[in-house]
Amino acid sequence: IAKVAEDYVPPTKPTFKIGGRVHFDTWDFPSNTPGIGFFENPATGNDPENRWAFRRVRLETSGDAFETMLWRIQVDFADPNDPAIKDVYIGWDELPGNTTVLLGNQKRPLGLDALNSSRFNIFMERPLVVEAFNEDARRLGLCGYSYSDDLVYNWRYGIFNMENVSGTGAYLGDAFQGSGNARLASSPWYDDSSGGRGYYHWAIAGMVANPDGDVLATTPHSNQGRFRTRPEARSSSRWIDTGAIAGADWYEVFALESMLNVGAWNFCGEYQTTWLQRDNGMSDVNFHGGYLQAAYFLTGEHMAYDRKSSTLSRTKPFENFFLVPDCNGNFGTGWGAWQIAARISYLDLSDDNIQGGVETNATLGLNWLWTSHSKMQFNAIYGDISEHRPVGGYTGGNFWVMGCRFMVDF
Amino acid sequence: IAKVAEDYVPPTKPTFKIGGRVHFDTWDFPSNTPGIGFFENPATGNDPENRWAFRRVRLETSGDAFETMLWRIQVDFADPNDPAIKDVYIGWDELPGNTTVLLGNQKRPLGLDALNSSRFNIFMERPLVVEAFNEDARRLGLCGYSYSDDLVYNWRYGIFNMENVSGTGAYLGDAFQGSGNARLASSPWYDDSSGGRGYYHWAIAGMVANPDGDVLATTPHSNQGRFRTRPEARSSSRWIDTGAIAGADWYEVFALESMLNVGAWNFCGEYQTTWLQRDNGMSDVNFHGGYLQAAYFLTGEHMAYDRKSSTLSRTKPFENFFLVPDCNGNFGTGWGAWQIAARISYLDLSDDNIQGGVETNATLGLNWLWTSHSKMQFNAIYGDISEHRPVGGYTGGNFWVMGCRFMVDF
Amino acid sequence: IAKVAEDYVPPTKPTFKIGGRVHFDTWDFPSNTPGIGFFENPATGNDPENRWAFRRVRLETSGDAFETMLWRIQVDFADPNDPAIKDVYIGWDELPGNTTVLLGNQKRPLGLDALNSSRFNIFMERPLVVEAFNEDARRLGLCGYSYSDDLVYNWRYGIFNMENVSGTGAYLGDAFQGSGNARLASSPWYDDSSGGRGYYHWAIAGMVANPDGDVLATTPHSNQGRFRTRPEARSSSRWIDTGAIAGADWYEVFALESMLNVGAWNFCGEYQTTWLQRDNGMSDVNFHGGYLQAAYFLTGEHMAYDRKSSTLSRTKPFENFFLVPDCNGNFGTGWGAWQIAARISYLDLSDDNIQGGVETNATLGLNWLWTSHSKMQFNAIYGDISEHRPVGGYTGGNFWVMGCRFMVDF
Question: Which fold has domain C2-409?
Fold first, then answer.
């Protein structure tokens, strides 16, 4: 060690890493009842259009400055004329208690599926409840991240501004529309000897928010008391949506996570409930939802897990996909990893005079991992919406959606 | 070889390369007849404005994942407020028959000058016919690329969506507006012994397209039955333009390429013809055009050629340009490579009741290559337009344009 | 040396470097008189809003091509939906007389604080006069940069187009709206033996500009005879502003710089004056301003200086900031570098019938350098505006602003 210390040359400039991802989607809306057309196109009631689209074209750079600071910039070009920022922050590392503190645009601690990278999630789009209560996840804020020495516990806690600034990079407003978020996660069982093929995960998280539902028309910021989500597919509109809730004063979200992995099997569920208080004598409202899912690797791999952040990590196929001719004119082949999955998802955004809608979705998924950094995902979704405020006279409907994603990250 | 195999360490993550280019243009419109003013500014008839503009400010990243997959992202910032994607794809490599398959935004196989990189083309802007029948070249699609073991033949063939999504990243529409494209290219003569100073190239290509000319106003996609082009210079408007052709049902393009290189001389020509069928009893229409060009390196270099893709490649000057003082107070100088070129170009977009215009251009070009990765291009263009549907009462006109480009790639 | 020459392998492709910066700001407007509300929001007179915002999210690449050429691309994503280009140029290096020539978007030589990098400036935002007479600094142009062998003198001189194209990448217009700019700078005293802890800097610079104040409504370019600036803070509007000055024909700027550094102390001042000639018999007008500032490192460092460009350079703290537990459970700590500063700034944009306003600001600053590449800046500004053309009936006002910036570059 003395030898290493002697040879140690302190860095003279920050380190620099580059990465990115390409996610390319096709979405097909083969059938739906008329109400769905009105939720998608309120003016015309036309069916949702099929589409080919880049979902993520993301470039990112990150590094650390002199071992005790770090930074990260992610820009997404999936909508090329209007890029968006994702993670953009600076931070302090190696603080007492295995702590890192980040300042800037980063994910709010709320919902396992929101914290999982889009590179690793089992389904193409996040569950209804996770998207609705933590829309697009990232906000400007200051957040601390710590873990216990034995890796059994980790926690994160921060204050955030509520406005999504991925397109503008700025929040303007004298009324601080803030939230406090915290999450405590644990992996009490983690089978190190098998490289993490067995583990149990639980977490609790909460959010207390001040959405300023009495925002004045003359100020540049907007009422942040609104919950909405797409149907776990890339529709143009968000089909269930409370709209901005007039008089939204404070709201609180409570969230539970649980995940069990046994070899090739992974079982996961989350539940979240939100209480929202309104002023001007309007009654309080409650919205809530959850999901349950199971996944199984036909080829025997397992969903990798990161104990320091308590999120999913990168799965490496036992054998990559390839089809290469050898010198005898035969083909060498590898078939990659194959995973099947099913999810039931539920969200109730209707209470009192707020009729955002109630949605239940069932999804079948198939993932074909070509390599540890590239895969194909296929999802077939059947969904049902009810208790929606009438649009074109319709308060509900049901639909089928098929999605296919081709993705690589680097 | 056994030794190498022993030492072989399989990669654990994708490789990563970075590059880009800067093209900076000045364009001068010294004289034109009044009709040209109306083609440029239909409302006012004002002369085309001179301009200084970035033509390309492009950053790109690419790499391969575990040798059998690859990916590429190119983003262009020449219009900084509205970036555009160029190549964005993922792919599979080392498939049987020297085959690569790419999925994503990529060039449609149609027209040699469209497939040549803008870094290597002899003239500043592509010929009328190539731009009109393969506007901006790149589309969402799935395309295979193969070559024969002896490099004499290569071919590419794919299906593409017809909408240019460089600004939006997405195609929405239930009517699949698709095309099938294919190109077979060959270099039957290629003088390996001189490093490719002599070669003969030919290719045939075709496209069958379904532009959906009966698109309804209520759907988000648009009629793709339209052919148009700028005057081989960066005007604000496209001066000849069929407009969206009502009832355009199907169209077929047939394209021929031929190129002969003898030392410092390069001769190249292409011809393309398009038949378009309209429904509702309207007669079919035909548009066609071509160009012939010759180029000569005064300093003796030759236009490099890539036999695997049958496109132009990077020319390296015998001596770079430099002007550096030595220790005796004299100047060391190098003059780079100098190339002169001429092109005649023709395009007829007028047939039946579609009066897009007929244009004939003559261009003189001078290229000064400072290094293999940087050069200056100068073009002087005289053009004549006729048979254009009347704009401000004018059906034609003629014009002079001078352009100068400064470029580097890396 | 002969050995080195023998081993020398000429490069086969350009070199490539990557870097960037993140600047994240909070701005607080705790008090102001009503006139300030109208300068910020002319329609409503509302107070300036507090804000959290990315000020710079910049990625840059640069390199040299074969030792005699160079290039650079900087793109800023602080407003993610509308990126902006900063430095984008190609250039020729190693020319006689220690000369480099750059072509493209680059800073006009006018004003020390404008030429200093935003990474190194002592205050968060540039002085009133520097911003008003060289708004956003960068323009399309051709500019030469030279220095004397003894480093005592350096000079730069160029021609530029006057339109700010950071958002569009292009200038359109037959009237060449150009300027000629030049700056001669010197460091007659520079204490090499202490690593530059003592130096004296002076410079003179000038600009002659043709803003085309008679621009017609039918041409795409606009009258460039306009001077304006924010209050040395990130307000939404520019509070003093001449507006586009009708008939602005030519203007001339003359600028003086002076800076003295003695160990931890730095003293700096600039003065600029602008004469503008109007046609149509309107009288000429004059605008002018300046600033004085002093800064002191409590921890003893000094403001580094680059003699080849005569601008501020990177300061390295004696000790980085860190708070790291050691193996005994104690904390190792380092406190970084601390600097205090004060600035008085003045700008008069009111003359004859042009009543842009007169502003005087006093700023106190505190800089906490965590490392050589990261720091925090805090500014408290008191300002007073008068002689402004009436807005909402107000011709002046005063205000307090507090700003805090967190920044890292890499």
Answer: Porin (2.40.160)
